[in-house]
TrEMBL record:
Transmembrane segments: 238-259, 271-291
Gene Ontology CC annotations of this record: plasma membrane
Keyword Transferase: yes
Protein name from the UniProt record: Glycosyltransferase family 2 protein
Length: 335
């Protein structure tokens, strides 16, 4: 029986404190997996260095030099966590592909459970955090608020605790390589929205063994905006809703003012004027802000710039320059 291939994509950004421990931990987990019921699986590790400024690049190159099953991709600069995962998926040759972080919050011990679900016929295996020891009160509350608002305004409903720790079949990976190539993207949303048979597994997120979270409040806010503009048109219609409500209120206020003036023969015109000014300026700037956000998204897509640019690669059979070259090469092979 020919062996199946497992590809594990690991996003790396300034993780010098944890990389060696991560490699030791995941290799031990994979060795145990091969010794037991999953001995028909081979694996490759694809580390994507997202423009790290510390010694992560040197450490990854040492990994690749010692083990040819370890592939390394170095970006020309920092393109972001999702770009790193997309680059790894573009290069993954496995039948089953797992994306995870290098900080060990995504436990490698969960890999056999994910493979077991894949062998049952699932194409998408989502990992939902049952517990996250590193997430504080503010992060948990803002996460709940985001998903609550998003699911209320979008026809696509997302699971709240699903993380960037997931597994996909090669079938799904091929679709992600040819479609869903927006510059403003929400990969976690794509995985949940792409269809196919899927299952959700719960896991306990561990504490970081070193370093710190790379997601500041500003970055999280930008991710939320990208998700909203990727999957919902409701904000575009918010101006219409607010304008309609404002129109009804304005007519009601105008009638009230007219009746009051007719009965009492007096009225404060300045208050009325100020009310209308504040009301319509609020609506105007709300609509302009929403339009500006969507126009900005359209501008980024029209530019057609690459999601990422690769500077160097290690142990990679095919040499790719950037994600556009990946699409072209994949297309030639399929033909």
């Amino acid at each position: 029986m020919s062996k199946k291939m497992l590809s594990i994509v690991i996003s790396v950004y300034n993780e010098e404190d944890v990389l060696k421990l991560f490699l030791k931990t995941i290799q031990e987990a994979l060795k145990k997996m091969q010794e037991k019921q999953f001995d028909i699986w081979d694996y490759e590790l694809i580390f994507v260095n997202d423009g790290s400024q510390d010694t992560s690049e040197r450490i990854l190159d040492e990994f690749a030099q010692k083990d040819t099953s370890i592939k390394v991709v170095h970006f020309s600069r920092n393109f972001g966590h999702e770009a790193a995962m997309i680059a790894g998926i573009d290069r993954a040759m496995g039948d089953f592909i797992i994306c995870m972080d290098a900080d060990l919050q995504n436990p490698p011990e969960e890999i056999p459970r994910m493979i077991a679900q894949y062998e049952l016929g699932y194409d998408v295996i989502l990992m939902a955090r049952k517990e996250n020891k590193d997430a504080g009160f503010r992060k948990n509350m803002t996460s709940k608020l985001f998903y609550g608002v998003f699911n209320a305004v979008s026809s696509v409903k997302f699971e709240q605790s699903v993380s960037d720790f997931f597994g996909i079949s090669q079938t799904v990976a091929k679709i992600l390589r040819s479609r869903y190539r927006e510059v403003n993207r929400y990969l976690r949303g794509y995985i949940q929205n792409i269809g196919f048979q899927r299952v959700i597994l719960e896991y306990k997120a561990k504490e970081r063994v070193g370093g710190h979270s790379k997601y500041s409040f500003h970055k999280l806010f930008n991710v939320a905006l990208d998700a909203l503009t990727c999957f919902s048109k409701t904000p575009l219609r918010a101006g219409l809703y607010v304008g309609g409500i404002s129109g009804v209120l304005s007519i009601g206020l105008l009638l009230y003012y007219g009746i009051s003036y007719w009965i009492h023969k007096e009225g404060n015109g300045m208050i009325l004027l100020c009310f209308f000014l504040f009301l319509f300026f609020t609506v105007l700037f709300l609509v302009l802000g929403i339009m500006g956000e969507y126009i900005g998204v359209l501008l980024e897509e029209v530019k057609d710039r690459p999601i990422y640019i690769v500077r160097e690669e290690r142990n990679q059979e095919e040499e790719f320059i950037d994600e556009k070259e990946v699409e072209r090469t994949r297309g030639e092979k399929s033909n």
